[in-house]
Design goal:
Blueprint (H helix, E strand, L loop, with lengths): L1 H21 L6 H18 L5 H23 L8 H21 L3 H34 L8 H4 L2 H21 L3 H41 L3 H5 L3 H5 L3 H17 L21 H14 L3 H13 L4 H18 L2 H25 L8 H12 L3 H14 L6 H14 L1
Length: 413
Amino acid sequence: MLWGWIGGLIASVSFQVIELFYTTPPYPKFFTWHFHILVSLFLLFSLLGASFPYRLPLSILYIIYALTTVYLLLKSKRRVLEYTPKFWLLGMGLLLLACIFFVFGEFLAFLVSFVLFFSSIILGMIQRIVPFLVWFHLSGFGLKDAPLMFEIIPPRRQAITFYSFFILCLSIPFALTSTDLLIVSIILHLFTASVLLFNVLGGIGIYLNMLSRVFRIFREKGGILKALDLWDWYESLEPKWQKKVKYYFSLKTIKNLNFPYKAKHFGSGDVQTAYTKRTFLGSLAQTALLEKDFETAHWLYWEALKQEGAPYEEHLILNDLLLLYQKLKDLEKMEEVAKRDVELFPEYAEELKERNGGKLPQINSFEVLVYLYERKGLFEDALALIKRIKELGIPYPQEEEVLKRISDKINSL
């Protein structure tokens, strides 16, 4: 169990974290790929007998592993040797002792050395992983003053843990020969465990304290959602759509250099905006449309239309929706949206004309509706709409071509 489970587990962890945490060269791939297979084979071989030759292969394998780990740690690119790799170095030294005692059948000495070996690794990894997780999570929340790893468990407190454990290791051989010295080892063990607990609780305390600030930021309900009074709308959405809204806001901050906001302005901070509810949601729908996420674009456009706003804003959204349905070749929806925009025309005509330098531009909904009427054989409706386009002064470059085509179709009936 000790070699196969605990030894194999620590080796597996080291294959991942030694290079990652301590910027060392990687373990040889051949060694990492075949290590656990060899452990299994040599364990089975050791069960065939209790003498020296049966135990030797397993011991040699772990000796190679320990020496390789020591070599990689000493090749670390970090200039200052931290205390957590010192725990690994101490652990590898204890593993070498355990291998020697195992070969020669010294069971008690082997057991003590092996327990101290994995205790050293656990002490080192706890004091590395806790600061890493605290820093990683707090940084992920966007806190600019998130503490660095060495500030969460300072090196001085790690040093106390290391040296107290190192002295504990030195005291164990003497403790096995004297009850009085055993008490000293117990006191050292309790002291090491207490310092470790203090370090871990200190890291957790820093995390919880900083986390309360994060929650306060989230509870502020600021940002562009507050500026547009969209918080109630946003919180009423299903989680799926909340994620989509936030995602396309963040994507827009990255891809659109003219977008005046950062990702953090979505729900926090004091934000001033020229957007309205409709134009804001419509702009997110445009981003989704450009990403070819037609489902989200469709949903966002219709959500924008549900908001209060000017007729001109509704025209812009309907125009985009019409383009979306044209991409999807949904003729029924194209007709629905085109009709709505044509009916709305008197309400947005003046603003459209004003924004276009005093002249009306081409309007896609009129042209699409003519095409749909013609397609359905509603020639009278198509001709009436063309006449209206002309009376309203809306440019229609294809007028003569369309009139001739419809005339030919009528004559052929």
